[in-house]
């Protein structure tokens, strides 16, 4: 498909240009530094077949929080390191980033979050993962595009039983606050509603179809029959894990796995109680732009939702140390080119409110 696409990567994101012409990146100095690395790679190797594998390699390491290992991508891809490092150390890197800042700021409509994907000038908003179907629809050529005939069908059918991967990723990370003891300082509230809409006849229209509606009701009933977080969270995590692997019919195995009374939930789902609970969750869901929508002490995290642990640490006003804060709320980033560190804030005793709508 790349043969019919002009792909342009813009390593700027939500970075802000300060009055003194320095950069303030959403995720700190590490992001600023690696954005410059990627800008220099695009400049040094204009050929997409060269710079894309390098950027993909760097981003893969960042995803796994291996911020200092980006230089291994040169050897892995047999690329000349000096071209990029010379650019980073000189004023060229900053010059390139200023160009990307101008391009990003010129977007119409302006971008709201990242990743911000645009096809033929049309932003995809939270449909960015379906960019292949948008490319196929935008293509005006006559030569068949091999992946289009199947990709559009995959999107149309697949969205009905979407794996909700972002939701499951967030749920998996939420489980860490149970393991490290942070949950003792957090009031966690799960809201299984997401982007569902109430229709004029009082039925629900879910973003990903009837399967999502049904399983949201299952989760709402689980919250109701087991108000204890230590009971309903493992069950919902189990259900979401099945969904992530596209095993939509296996959710009932979670009862046996966790030694929970199945009848309590199935009776709720089969009665009007399930719908009543979902209407409550609809009323509780705040105005939001996408899901998962994570809120810490009333403050939405937007695209930073995966960093909720650091926001909890910053919001905590207690004096008792919170397990996990000393490491999660700081970042140490070291390389031959840059050394970056951040400080830890002090804490005061107070539970932090954490709400996740998905």
Automatic annotation (TrEMBL):
Taxonomy, superkingdom: Eukaryota
Pfam families: GILT
Secreted as UniProt keyword: yes
Record localization: Secreted
Keyword terms of this UniProt record: Glycoprotein, Secreted, Signal
Entry keyword annotation includes NAD: no
Entry's family note: Belongs to the GILT family.
Protein name: Gamma-interferon-inducible lysosomal thiol reductase
Species, as recorded: Solanum tuberosum (Potato)
């Amino acid at each position: 498909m790349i043969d019919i696409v002009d792909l342009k990567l813009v390593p700027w994101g939500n970075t802000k240009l300060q009055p003194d012409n320095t950069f303030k990146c959403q995720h700190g100095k590490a992001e600023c530094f690696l954005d410059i690395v990627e800008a220099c790679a695009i400049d040094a190797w204009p050929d997409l077949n060269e710079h894309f594998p390098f950027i993909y390699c760097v981003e893969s390491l960042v995803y796994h929080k291996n911020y200092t290992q980006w230089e291994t991508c040169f050897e892995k891809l047999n690329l000349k390191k000096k071209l990029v490092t010379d650019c980073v150390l000189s004023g060229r890197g900053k010059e390139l980033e200023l160009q990307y800042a101008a391009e990003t700021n010129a977007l119409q409509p302006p971008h709201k979050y990242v990743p911000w994907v645009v096809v033929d000038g049309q932003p995809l908003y939270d449909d960015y993962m379906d960019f292949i179907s948008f490319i196929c629809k935008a293509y005006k050529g006559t030569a068949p595009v091999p992946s289009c005939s199947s990709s559009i069908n995959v999107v149309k059918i697949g969205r009905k039983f979407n794996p909700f991967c972002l939701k499951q990723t967030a749920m998996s990370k939420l489980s860490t606050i149970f393991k490290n003891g942070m949950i003792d300082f957090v009031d966690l509230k799960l809201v299984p509603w997401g982007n569902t809409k109430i229709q004029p006849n009082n039925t629900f229209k879910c973003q990903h179809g009837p399967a999502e509606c049904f399983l949201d009701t299952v989760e709402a009933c689980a919250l109701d029959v087991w108000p204890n977080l230590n009971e309903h969270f493992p069950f919902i995590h189990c259900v979401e894990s099945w969904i992530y692997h596209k095993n939509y019919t296996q959710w009932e195995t979670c009862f046996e796995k966790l030694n929970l009374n199945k009848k309590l939930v199935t009776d709720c789902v089969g009665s009007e109680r399930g719908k009543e609970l979902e209407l409550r969750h609809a009323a509780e869901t705040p105005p939001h732009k996408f899901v998962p929508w994570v809120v810490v002490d009333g403050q939405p995290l937007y695209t930073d939702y995966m960093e909720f642990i650091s926001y909890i640490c910053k919001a905590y006003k207690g004096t008792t140390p919170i397990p996990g804060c000393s490491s999660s709320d700081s970042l140490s980033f070291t390389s031959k080119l840059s050394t970056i560190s951040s400080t830890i804030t002090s804490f005061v005793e107070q539970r932090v409110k954490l709400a996740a709508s998905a």
